[in-house]
Amino acid sequence: MSDNLTISNLHATVDETEILKGLSLTVPKGEVHAIMGPNGSGKSTLAKVMAGHEDYEVTSGGITMDGAELLDMDIDERSREGFFLAFQYPLEIPGVSNANFLRAARQARLPKGEEIDAVAFYKEMYAKMDELGMDRKFTGRSVNEGFSGGEKKRNEVLQMMMLDPTYAVLDETDSGLDIDALKVVAQGVNAMRSPDRGFLVITHYQRLLDYIVPDVVHVLVDGRIVKTGDKDLALELEENGYDGIKEEILATA
Amino acid sequence: MSDSATLEAVSVDQDAGDFVYPEDYEHDAGYGLSEKTIDYISEVKGEADWIREFRKKALNTFEKKPNPTHWATKDLENIKFEDIRYYLSKGQRPTRTWDEVPDDVKETFERLGIPEKERKFLAGVEAQFDSEAAYSNIKEDLEKEGVIFVNSTEGLREHPELFKKWFGKVIPTGDNKYSALNSAVFSGGSFIYVPPGVKVAHPLQAYFRINAENFGQFERTLIIVDEGAEVTYMEGCTAPKFETATLHSAVVELVAMDNAKIQYITVQNWSNNVFNLVTKRGVAHENAEIRWIDCNIGSRLTMKYPGVIMKGRKARGEVVSIALANDGQHQDTGAKMIHAADETTSNVVSKSISVGEGRSTYRGLVHIPKHLKGCKNNTECDALLINSNSRTDTYPAISVRGNQHATQHEASVSQVSEEQIFYMQQRGLSEGEAMSLSVNGFVNDLVREFPMEYSVELKRLIDLEMEGSVG
User: Fold this and answer.
1) CATH architecture of the region A4-94+163-252
2) Do the beta carbons of residue A238 and residue A38 sit within 8 Å?
3) Does residue A115 sit at the B interface (CB-CB below 8 Å)?
């Protein structure tokens, strides 16, 4: 049994256009990996494919989570088995309070017939909200409805904390965040770093990686990982831009 | 997702209603409808001559009136009046204790949780099994205060003067084909009188159960709340899932005298074979208030537009309704608000959910004539579609004359998007759980209007409907 999230030679299409063209990488437990790439390189597609979105078709390759075939599982099953995706654009669910939503998600993880301990649940949720500097009023508000961009992202991190995943993918969590919100979100993620958990942080900009310092950086261009390095690779990208990398690849090809 | 202890305490789910006991009736009017049917019913009930005449006139009206298929669904033509039994009962007098109720009937209501609810939070219960009430009881202290809560048969027998004064006045026999049908063959339903100034703190509840196949249930309810008095009445309904169509056609008349308040709550959960064609209307006198809180789940076709005639100055009318149409179901519901005095206020809030091939229709009528001043109406109707092949239609008719009134109308149609479901599933909810959470979210603000016990039940019914609606 391997203790990692492994993507092997993944090909995926949307509306018959191939977006992922043989993507491979491995995130061992305990590590934070970053994927950086220009617009249209397939970053968000990768996140959606991992979560099981129906619009994306995997044509070949596979993903395993601690040895289990992720692609064989339903969307909700992946979640209950420990896979979490923090959305780039979190959805609004009118009329469903944040607390009820989280509670339903936690309840879904219990064996049939077993009831969630409501008191302990609220205590835990309040503690985590405090950690993220979220006002208590957010428990009663409808999920993401009328939230600012920063509040939505903070809410994603709250959900992640409450669901305690084994592997978490953060899809452009930094987009739409001001620097203060970015720090809070990063703090939340850093607090969750543990030998028992792996992170894949998808981002366009290096800025987020100042606060969530990755162990490994992958560069995604045109549906493939074209370069892998340590955290300095992100700085290098910031300086030379994606064009620099592309030229470099062309030169070595 | 929910507090299961509370749920268990009050559960009436769809499948819990799907059971049937063998038929064993003392009185059976047979199939089909004629003057003979009416004579049979009148004789069994030992009715006064004026009632028999009233019935026969109504039969005549029923036969003359066409089905309203120029605006309503053609499905009405599928009701085979000759294949229906119009009266079935085991006896005339409801018992005052559950112990005296025949075993199979008692078991029916026990399975539906009625005696338990009565002990917990009700001031009185009437339980109707097919045509007649099997059980009827009201708390002693209310009886001492002069509150009357009996079935219509008993009301006619014991309180003819009071009954006759209001009977058929709010909803005339010829109002529509089905009010005429009810007027011809009515049996059961509640008769309630609350004397001046008496405020009944706990709800009175009636439960309507259809047990027999090819049967029509035609209860007749008349509620009179005298000056300054208040009452909340709740009705629940179920039937087993038969192969053939069953007809439920009730008439409910409410009278709220000056400063009185009536709240009428319905949670219907009919099986898919029931044609549910109900006429409900109330008259609100000066400064009186009538609220219809109406929840329609199940049935093959429901046509129901609760109405309030605001006859006295400052009278208020309200309809709050939730309808859920699943595959093979059509919920055609709405409200009628007739402003007939100055400074009257009406409010209509309707939410409908269409699932799969389900269809929901909202029909609203608001009438404010020219000679009045200071009337207000607010109408909101929101529809939620779960699948792309579900259907919803809105037909609001607001007629406001004169320029001293305020009306407001809002309508919206929304759809649970695949992205929302994907998001919720990514958090670990199954597709069914995700849908039922969205639907519950959609009706959440209205569900709060229901008494706690009913809102929990409602939520559970929605969960069950949504669970069944996905693969």
Assistant:
1) 3-Layer(aba) Sandwich (3.40)
2) no
3) yes
